[in-house]
Amino acid sequence: xxxxxxxxxxxxxxxxxxxKRGDVFKAVAVLRQRKIIFEKQGFxxxxxxxxxxxxxxxxxxxxNLQPKRQVEETxxxxxxxxxxxxxxxxxxxxxxxTHDDIKALKDKGIKGQEIVQQLIENSTTFRDKTEFxxxxxxxxxxxxxxxxxxxxxxxxxxxxxxxxxxxxGKIIHLRxxxxxxxxxxxxxxxxxxxIVMETCAGLVLGAVMERMGGYGSxxxxxxxxxxxxxxxxxxxxxxxFFNNLHEFPLSKVDSLLCGTLSMExxxxxxEDTALTEEETNGLVDEKQTSVQGTEEESSAETAMEINxxxxxxTMDINAEDAEFKENKERENKENVREKQRxxxxxxxxxxxxxxxxxxxxxxxxxxxxxxxxxxxxxxLLEFVAPSRPFVVYCQYKEPLLxxxxxxxxxxxxxxxxxxxxxxxxxxVLPDRSHPKLTMSGGxxxxxxxxxxxxxxxxxxxxxxxxxKMEEPSSKRCKVQDLCC
Length: 484
Prior knowledge:
The chain is α/β, with parallel strands linked by helices. The chain contains 15 helices and 16 strands. The strands form four sheets. The chain has a seven-stranded mixed sheet, sandwiched between helices. Helix 3 (112-121) packs antiparallel against helix 4 (131-145), helix 10 packs antiparallel against helix 11 and helix 12 (373-380) packs parallel to helix 13. The relative contact order is 0.08.
């Protein structure tokens, strides 16, 4: 039984799953009594819990799921087929059933397979179509009327296909075959120490984590206030996978390379802010107490002229105010402690990531960012060990060309390659296999290479010679020619 569970995992509550209908995907969280809207249909995933991933379900009229039974398709109607479609005219009069009739069938609770069968029987031109045209007609009607959904386990291929089809801008148009080439060229495997810089909503990071299987360490470089891992959460990794995941901001890379980043000063920042907050709170409390004192004095002066009942009411109000202030002070202190704890955790993660980067022995570097790749790559290559691969993806060719020339001038890399990814999908069916008419226009460009030990003396001299041989040299030649 343990082997069967390992081979066929089951759907559990709280899992991250992917809904599939034809070529359309959607990542959802499996929760009870939560309505999911997918392809203009609303349903609940309660009945799917406990089934094996890859099970196909039918959506009932009340919004529940039930496993679809495998029924052999009847081929009695498809045996009678024509030999030519030239005499068939698409005038909209070949179907006897109207929209109202189809809607009435749906309201009665008739399944989509029976509706498709009735559409075939009431079509006057179905028998005159060729066998291929009949298959195409049936597939089209099934896609429209059969409410069939398959629940699959998320993977790199499925999620990259989903993002590329639904929201390609969020992953900077990174196609799934391009991502596969990046993982292969980057030699991503278990036990590696990888540096990942990406702005693809965490898709590249999730692909690296899946390939490494929880073994090794990953350092994610991020711009802004924090890393974005929307796609990474869709993978549904267990908690141990995140133990070896570190993060480091790009804004502190230069200070880390220059040696000016000191971990001792980092924890003092949140403490100082917390102290300032406490001081401000204290000042406010002092002001409030002073105001209260003046109010009490004034009330004491006027209390001699007020009745005893009014004095009791003011005493009760003061007691309530004191309790309210005490509760507010406790809440403020708890908020400050939570902020300090979160800041301490962030600082601890930052120190761990900085310690790993200081070793400068990373086994690989992957860059897929919307920013210009040249400054990113030149700075991050300092943390990669010699004889290790690096891969840079960009949607356009020109930034990578500039990066290619800069690396050639700098040195320290070999086997530099700039390649364009190209993909063509094929329809594979009996007697009609051919390339699909619609295909992706472009999958971006990849710059890959291998690091070597950089001879700083030679690189400095070559840089000086390159500076001397720029525009002034041509001007000098022209001046010399004129003098002659």
